[in-house]
From TrEMBL:
<dbReference type="InterPro" id="IPR033177">
    <property type="entry name" value="PSD-B"/>
</dbReference>
<comment type="pathway">
    <text>Phospholipid metabolism; phosphatidylethanolamine biosynthesis.</text>
</comment>
<dbReference type="GO" id="GO:0004609">
    <property type="term" value="F:phosphatidylserine decarboxylase activity"/>
</dbReference>
<keyword id="KW-1208">Phospholipid metabolism</keyword>
<dbReference type="Pfam" id="PF02666">
    <property type="entry name" value="PS_Dcarbxylase"/>
</dbReference>
<comment type="pathway">
    <text>Lipid metabolism.</text>
</comment>
<keyword id="KW-0456">Lyase</keyword>
<keyword id="KW-0865">Zymogen</keyword>
<keyword id="KW-0444">Lipid biosynthesis</keyword>
<keyword id="KW-0443">Lipid metabolism</keyword>
<keyword id="KW-0210">Decarboxylase</keyword>
<dbReference type="InterPro" id="IPR003817">
    <property type="entry name" value="PS_Dcarbxylase"/>
</dbReference>
<keyword id="KW-0594">Phospholipid biosynthesis</keyword>
<protein>
    <recommendedName>
        <fullName>phosphatidylserine decarboxylase</fullName>
        <ecNumber>4.1.1.65</ecNumber>
    </recommendedName>
</protein>
<keyword id="KW-0670">Pyruvate</keyword>
Amino acid sequence: MEDIVYFDRYAGQEKTELVYGDQALRWTYGTTMGRLALAAVVRRTFFSKWYGWRMDQPSTRSRIAEFVETYGLDADEFEKTVSEFESFNDFFARRLKSEARPIESSPDRFVFPADGRHLCVPDLSKAGGLFIKGKMFCLTTLLDDSELATRYQNGSLLLSRLCPTDYHRFHFPVDGKPGTTRLINGPLYSVNPIALCKNIEILATNKRTITQLETPNLGTVLLLEIGATCVGSIRQTFSPETAVCKGDEKGYFRFGGSSTITIFEPGRIQFDHDLVEQSSIQRELYAKMGDHAGQILA
């Protein structure tokens, strides 16, 4: 299988992703025995719950310093020092200092909801594919609501993929008032491109949550969090029916790579040029939470 290449907005160049658990992923999704193990064990909730429990154990603290060094994380951004984390999951769901992720202040801009590698679809009715040209998941399946899918069938979509090495809290991309989060149960396949290139429908069928955000000038924005293999859980930290500001925390993932999906009503936004350009060739753009992702048109 080929390396995962993305475009780094800040470096202005292509980079190759250093994948946590690379060999295990390639075995699971690239071999017959691996696919059998995937069907029997890996995709199932009990496996991820067990792994999440394991990452909660105090003994996993010994892994943190090596992880930070191996993947080049900036420990100066963390609210806690490396020695203060109580477990690997505590480190994984870490908060950052507020100055580490400044929020784009322009009122006519919306922001990325999470650190990660991003792809956009400016018009879902003309989707050319995400990780592979011509391969797109079913919106009705994703939303588990045919009427909602019809309403957003010409809308705009932002997929934000978080690697295990990323900051794993997710935030609101615009101001608004969120409703109650709805859980849609499903399996827990990996959301790494190694898996998604085999089956893009993973994004639409994995365990996921959906929140409708009522906004002053964008109508209703749909905010989804997608579970994945070894994600212990998706935790929401916001209060429903309470107004939020752009960049406020919405929640966090426990251990594992995960994704968020943001869906806008038709004609409401315009994605940034570099995001559109990279997405048009099915290559992800790396950008941080709080950075501008596009312009509000309405």
